[in-house]
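Thread amino acids onto this structure.
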């Protein structure tokens, strides 16, 4: 993925941008990973903080909705949530509100500016995120969402600081691992990968984020997809 602006829904706001094309490519790749069984629930995570997993999950969810799918993006990062910022939504009610029995599932689902894409924000930050995500209530929420949506995208916390993503992974059809290019040491990335594999969850692929496509040797790719290209 080319480097994108923080909390920007580029696939909706600038569909001709090179980053938008990268998200469409990711969407296509995921579609053909399991063409027969299909993927219904996908979790996005990273090794550490600040690698762009929320940007990738939000934009991919929007890209999936653009193909006519009913998609819901759920902010499962109950420690440092940011999904609501991509959609200029308030975060006073969300996933934690459902998990603690304060509201019903339907009361926390919000429509977005992207047709076909709904979201559930994280809600108020709780004192016990891991316990809430490991609860039977979380499994029930996912089962209910599967009955109404074609795709469920989960934005989970990074793997190494906390166990939340590892708790959620077995509830999904697979994990997409986001890695910031030239920022994450190889041994750190491999350690996070091993932790995910220990949950017996399939790693669907790795998104190399923040790649400088304009550097020498990749300029041809940038020119081909940029709006300034004459082709």
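Threaded sequence (231 positions):
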């Amino acid at each position: 993925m080319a480097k994108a602006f923080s909390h920007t829904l580029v696939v909706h706001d600038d569909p001709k941008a090179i980053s938008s094309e990268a998200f469409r490519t990711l969407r296509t790749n995921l579609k053909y990973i399991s063409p027969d069984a299909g993927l219904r629930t996908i979790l996005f995570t990273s090794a550490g903080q600040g690698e762009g997993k929320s940007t990738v999950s939000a934009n991919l969810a929007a890209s999936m909705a653009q193909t006519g799918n009913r998609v819901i993006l759920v902010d499962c990062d109950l420690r440092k949530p940011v999904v609501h910022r991509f959609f200029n939504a308030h975060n006073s009610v969300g996933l934690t509100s459902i998990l603690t029995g304060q509201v019903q599932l339907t009361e926390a689902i919000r429509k977005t500016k992207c047709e076909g894409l709904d979201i559930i924000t994280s809600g108020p930050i709780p004192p016990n995120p891991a316990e809430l995500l490991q609860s039977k209530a979380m499994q029930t929420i996912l089962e209910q969402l599967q009955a109404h949506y074609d795709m469920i995208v989960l934005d989970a916390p990074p793997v190494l600081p906390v166990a939340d993503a590892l708790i959620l992974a077995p509830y999904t059809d697979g994990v997409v691992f986001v890695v910031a290019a030239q920022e994450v040491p190889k041994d750190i990335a491999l350690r996070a990968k091993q932790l995910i594999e220990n949950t017996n969850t399939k790693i669907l692929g790795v998104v190399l984020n923040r790649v400088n496509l304009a550097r020498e040797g990749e300029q041809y790719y940038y020119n081909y997809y940029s709006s300034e290209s004459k082709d």
